[in-house]
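Quick start: read one record
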Amino acid sequence: MALPNEILTAIFNQLSSSDLAVLAQISYRFNAVAERILYSYVYITDNISEASPYPLKTLWWCDGMRRRQHLFDTTRKLQIRWQADRTAPPPHYLSNICDRLADILPFLLYLDSLDIFLGPANLVPPRELQQLQHPNAPLLMHPIERVLRSCRFTHLRSCSLGAEWTKGVQPYTGVLTSFLASLTSLRHLRISDLHSDSSLVMQGLPLQALPELSTFRGSADAAATLLPGRPIQYLLLTGQDSDVNRENLPRMACTTVPLKCLDLSAMSARPVLLRNVSNYLPSVESLRVKLALRHTLHYAFSGIRILASLSTVLSAFHQLSYLDLSPTDIDGVGRANSFEELGLCREWSRACPSLRRIIFPSQTEWVVNEGHIWSQIQ
């Protein structure tokens, strides 16, 4: 007796993409079940170079979806990432491929997760791109906006957007804010290239937009315009530590719930930044940081002991329970020494009594028990 489709789906879900591709050729029924699984989670990485100047996997997927429109409602996760090496040709032609994507994406109404990174697609200066366009062509916009301009994903919960960035490229416009305003269920947002030249466009986002957003990753200026009035609890900042200043930090503190997790591992942070953060974000319970030690801490101590200077900074965090220094370059602090690390645990916990867990640059992890005894996790 033939197995029900539900059981076939449960079995096929355990198989790799290559195995599913083989099964899809066995029969019409296997093909129908396998295709729905293959097209529900799509992960595409295109490497663009002089030898391969087009994102062919993306084009093949677009053509495949155009032939299989019955699969539009099956796609739940979509990741498309373009990478380019130094031999890649000028990216003028990529705007046409963005339009190919724009013909497909609006029909994926049940997307739960979207991750689009368009690599070099935005590296053409706007003036040069304007000259290449027809006089009656639509207004210039960021490639991400070209792809998403007609999309409305009411089920989307996770969204990551971006392209390579340099000064003078096309900034984001109001198209981005219109797209974000339509994401009523979004919880996690990352915009990797929303820098100061275009972050002001976020001010056009209505206050009632993104009512469920809890996580944001991006620049300090973008965070300063996005966080106020929203329930964001996890923040990862990108860029330089000098980008985080006394102008944008106060706005980051204007969330509707206390900001609990702050991740500074994407920048080299000086202790002075941590001091400023403690003034405006005292509710932080989890802190992950890549310390820039050689510029800021004196070398009165040897090895890991130079981190003792953090005691004063940590004393300003009254709710901090988790401190992760593992992104810090170990070459700047010497070799790991369990006795020195234990001494720092005790010293920091006196300065910050709420501290319960510490990960050092050596990757060693320490926790404290109810008796206030610190021990290393093996």
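The mean pLDDT is 85.
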